[in-house]
Amino acid sequence: MSLGSENLILKYGVSGSSYPKDTGGPETGFYRSWKPYLIQEGFYHFLLGLESYLEFQKKLSLLAEEPVGVSLALSCMVEVNVAGGILLQSETTKQNRFQNENAKDKQTLTNLEGSHWAAFQNETPTRIYAVGVSEPGWETKLRKLKSRLENGKLSGTKSFITNGGEADVIFWVTKREAENPVYSVRRNIAESNVAVENQMIEESFHTDFTPLVSHLKLTLCEYPILDSDLILENYGKLGMELRLKELLSLVSLLIGKTKSVSKENKRIAEEREILIRWRETFLSPLNGNPEAEYLLTGFPYPTDALLLALTSHWNLASPKELKSIDPDYQLFVWEDSFTNYLVQKKNRKSS
């Protein structure tokens, strides 16, 4: 889908509804309702080696031009960047993906049947992956994670799993000495190796910003894990790459989000175009999956000028007040300790 294509929300949506016209509804779930259409329109082609990361970012911007599309773009970018990022790193799945040196980006779609990658193709029923990292009191430090696998049983709590309320499988980041293995946890009790329902305690919730995105707090109590459930030996430094991808994708969501208001304000239009050109220049040289070291060269990503233009447009005191205009703007002014750590790391490299 090119930038000149019809917006997916306009193409498949229903006036007055957050769901597509042919499938879905609250009983199906927001992201689950839309994912078949995202697959159809190529939103997962980057993961399958069929297009560049820049093309994926352009699709996110186009999607985010519609109010409902901001929530959908967030759900999509988290599954692609985070769950997909773990799969890209996994040695077991790499063997299924790098087969033919003549294939685009040295990736191929062969030998994908029965693999995790089928979830990003025309798989029925639709399957959704989410990732559990955040824990109560962890302060964004992997060494403080308390999730443990002991005697083949996993216990711990993940406090904020984006897409978790709709996910079929959650990639659970644990702690084992100096490493952080990642295990696959299936939410459907009937399809998992869990025998007792109280081994899994769930609490679904939504936020004021992107309110259609489902989040989950999930506690496991001696949840049985098989050897085949190990997805990644060590999450480790991958966390930095995945967070930088999320922050870069927020640039694309901001580009889409501000299209309508840019038509009313010349300064916003100019700053938005500057941001679009920056993204093109930054991502065009990339082949394949962007890694942390490259992503860090462009960080912090230059959204401040556009956010300030928006702040001025609505006569607000600071960008943090943009959420009073639309709660979705909180996405773009959110600061957590890990983001601050990345700023400090970049400053140290520059000094």
From TrEMBL:
According to the UniProt entry, its GO molecular function terms are: oxidoreductase activity, acting on the CH-CH group of donors
Protein's name according to its UniProt entry: Acyl-CoA dehydrogenase
